[in-house]
Amino acid sequence: MSLLVRDELIATARAMNATGLNVGTAGNLSVRTRRGFLITPTGMPYESLHPSDIVEVGKDGQSSGSRLPSSEWRMHRGIYDARPEVEAILHCHSPHATAISSLRRGIPAFHYMVAVAGGIDIRCAPYATFGTEELARLAVESLCDRTACLLANHGMLALAATLEKAMRLATEVENLARQYAIALSAGEPVILDEREMAIVLEKFKTYGQQQQRRVSPFRLRAGSATG
Ligand SMILES: [Zn+2]
């Protein structure tokens, strides 16, 4: 696997901490490869990571390289096994998502943007000890038809086709968790019903396509497309 992918993993891990999504070595990141996946090593500060520190874990769970893989490699393997469309996984202990996860609740449709994870809510997986097959199984279940979930008393997961998209999704989920936490502290937020969310999900399906049709690559590069 190319050096570029390892560099991108390291750059994204550093960005995850620089943007406040994660602190220290708590989170982990991976990218699918032909053999299995590349993942950040366990317990190493991202600032000191070298491309050779990134570990490749095979589909059989055997890792190669000089470092040990993240303690959550089973969770990453479980997701890649269950979700063939997923190419990158980001796991972090972002403050607000983790706070909501400690309430053992997911993020309901208090805001229509929860549709960013593919459904009418962002679920919270039940608690299991970190690094276990049990946690991997519970995460996969909670991610059914979704690209993000919270993990009870732990943190969150974001799945995407690229590391950059996984990072964007995780940032959005953390922002939603923050807004939801503020709403909960002020009262009981009104939750959008399934009918409203069905409309939003439909609009989300065509939104990207419209953007691609209407905006030329040049205009996209020039930054005239709006998010
Ligand atoms: Zn974790």
Q: What key phrases describe this protein's structure?
A:
227 residues; alpha+beta; 8-stranded mixed sheet; 14% strand
Note the topology.
Elements: H1 3-18, E1 28-32, E2 36-39, E3 55-58, E4 63-64, H2 73-82, E5 88-92, H3 95-102, E6 124-125, H4 133-142, E7 148-151, E8 155-160, H5 163-186, H6 194-214, H7 217-221
Parallel strand pairs: 6-7
Antiparallel strand pairs: 1-2, 1-5, 2-3, 3-4, 5-8, 7-8
Helix pairs in contact: 2-4, 3-5
Bound molecules: zinc ion (ZN).
In short:
With 227 residues, the protein is an alpha+beta fold. Helices cover 41% and strands 14% of the residues.
Derived from helix and strand composition plus strand pairing, the structural class reads: alpha+beta
Major sheet details: 8 strands, mixed
- What portion of residues is helical? 40-55%
- Annotation, overall tally of beta strands: 8
Distance between the termini: 32 Å
Strand content: 5-15%
Strand order of the largest sheet: 4-3-2-1-5-8-7-6
Instruction: Tell me the series of helices and strands, N- to C-terminal.
Output: HEEEEHEHEHEEHHH
